[in-house]
Design a protein that fits this description.
Elements lengths: L9 E10 L2 E11 L4 E5 L6 H8 L7 E6 L9 H4 L2 E4 L11 H11 L4 H14 L15 H13 L5 E5 L7 H16 L3 E6 L2 H4 L4 E6 L2 E6 L1 H5 L4 H11 L8
Parallel strand pairs: 3-7, 3-8, 5-6, 6-7
Antiparallel strand pairs: 1-2, 1-4, 8-9
Helix pairs in contact: 3-4, 3-5
């Protein structure tokens, strides 16, 4: 029926990205239902970041089919872009703006009006324990605080799809627990979350996991199903990964 919501928040088939003669991502298939947290896990250089950059439209696929929130990233409408929140691995903060100004600027880009913008700015900064330093310039923050500020900027407009590249890298266990509690609330409010991670305990926070190696999905399903996966690469990698003891703070 015309105008009905898509069955999947993200649907990819044969998603491929080449850089000259190098195949960074080769034939990735993904189906992410709405109101789902998908964890994309894999070693450094496996293609995780390239994959999510195609999802948000900053990289054009070399081949394959892709729809995000019912739209093709090649032809994203402005309304679709405004429904997506993205936190990259590398900081895109303005170092000369304060913590509060960075979040305020991000909120204004997504059309939040003044009253809601102020309310949401305070909410996300308090959540990530940045409200006391709201007047400090972003360039003066520690690396961990900059990660938290980047996450605040991605969360401030309450997106329908939240895409996070290593969202808790460099955070202590207590703040990691806080972030994942908030991601669960984001999902409960009706949003879809896709996050790359190498923390086993964070994979276990997800509804579904896709393991990427050498640019391909080598296992997918619930964390429990993927942890039981067999196979030369998959089994060895997961056996090591899921035997790690890295508990999040209770």
């Amino acid at each position: 029926m015309a105008g009905s919501a898509p069955a999947f928040a993200v649907e990819a088939a044969g998603l491929t990205r080449r850089f000259d003669d190098v195949v960074a991502v080769g034939g990735v298939d993904l189906r992410v239902p709405p109101r789902t947290i998908l964890g994309i896990i894999g070693p450094s250089g496996s293609g995780k970041t390239t994959t999510i950059r195609m999802l948000i439209g900053t990289l054009i696929p070399s081949a394959g089919e892709l729809r995000v929130l019912g739209d093709s990233p090649r032809r994203f409408h402005r309304a679709t872009r405004e429904r997506i929140g993205y936190m990259p691995q590398r900081s895109i903060l303005s170092p000369d703006l304060t913590v509060g100004e960075n979040v305020d600027f991000a909120a204004s880009l997504f059309g939040l009006l003044l009253f809601r913008r102020r309310k949401r700015k305070r909410q996300v900064l308090e959540l990530l324990e940045l409200w006391p330093v709201r007047d400090r310039k972003a360039g003066k923050l520690s690396g961990g605080m900059q990660r938290r500020l980047s996450l605040a900027c991605a969360l401030v407009h309450e997106p329908a799809l939240l895409v996070l590249d290593e969202p808790t890298a460099g955070l202590d266990p207590i703040l990691r627990r806080t972030v994942w509690d908030e991601l669960q609330r984001v999902r409960e409010r009706g949003a879809t979350v896709i996050a790359t991670t190498q923390y086993v305990t964070e994979a276990e926070e997800c509804d579904a996991v896709s393991l990427i190696a050498h640019g391909r999905v080598v296992a997918s399903g619930t964390p429990e199903k993927v942890a039981r996966s067999k196979g030369s690469y998959t089994g060895n990698f997961l056996a090591e990964m899921f035997d790690q003891k890295q508990p999040l703070a209770a």
